[in-house]
Write a structure and sequence with these properties.
This protein is mainly alpha-helical and about 190 residues long. About 75% of the residues lie in helices and about 0% in strands. It is elongated and about 60 Å long.
């Protein structure tokens, strides 16, 4: 079950991150320089990639002791929330990029990451309030059941990316390529 939940969350992050990699730039330039747009998109993908990499590890848990299981999962989720916070802050600093749609796309990526943060933080809160193993399992089951919502958030960001026509720039950005080729970790 634990591996399935982690795989679902990581896959959702990959969807959101691939989409937000398109989170191109906003600037007042009428014709943005392609190299600047590619560099900006690389930074956006790098910001999202930090969270994707963070979620790729497995939590250090002790399945033999319910209290250690709960504490280990809670600590693991806390580090993931911190990683998402960093990604959101990094994306916020990229709102003013070299493309007219920079802010729109960066904000869309921030919103997608915000949804991931909410899911992780809510699960952590439920874990912290759990009084038995069944509640711990229920918290993770609920988190897994919300994977569809994250996929929709990723699709919404992807739609914004596609509408800008910046696929070529994303294809040239190293961090964006890495996000698209990163397999989900179980």
């Amino acid at each position: 079950m634990r591996r399935t939940v982690i795989a679902v969350v990581t896959t959702c992050l990959l969807v959101v991150s691939a989409c937000s990699s398109g989170g191109s730039s906003t600037s007042t330039q009428a014709t943005p320089n392609e190299a600047d747009v590619v560099a900006w998109m690389d930074k956006v993908c790098g910001a999202v990639g930090g969270t994707v990499k963070s979620l790729s590890d497995e939590p250090p848990i002790d399945m033999s002791d319910p209290s250690k299981l709960q504490a280990g999962m809670s600590e693991w989720l806390g580090t993931k929330v911190t990683a998402v916070d960093k990604s959101i802050a990094d994306l916020k600093s990229l709102e003013n990029g070299p493309h007219p749609k920079s802010k729109e796309l960066a904000v869309a990526a921030e919103d997608g990451m915000g949804q991931i943060k909410t899911l992780l933080a809510d699960t952590k809160s439920k874990l912290d309030a759990s009084t038995d193993v069944n509640q711990v399992v229920a918290a993770f089951t609920e988190m897994a059941s919300k994977a569809g919502e994250l996929e929709k958030a990723g699709a919404d960001v992807q739609k914004k990316f596609d509408e800008t026509g910046l696929g070529g720039a994303a294809a040239k950005a190293a961090n964006c390529k890495e996000l698209q080729t990163s397999p989900p970790t179980t």
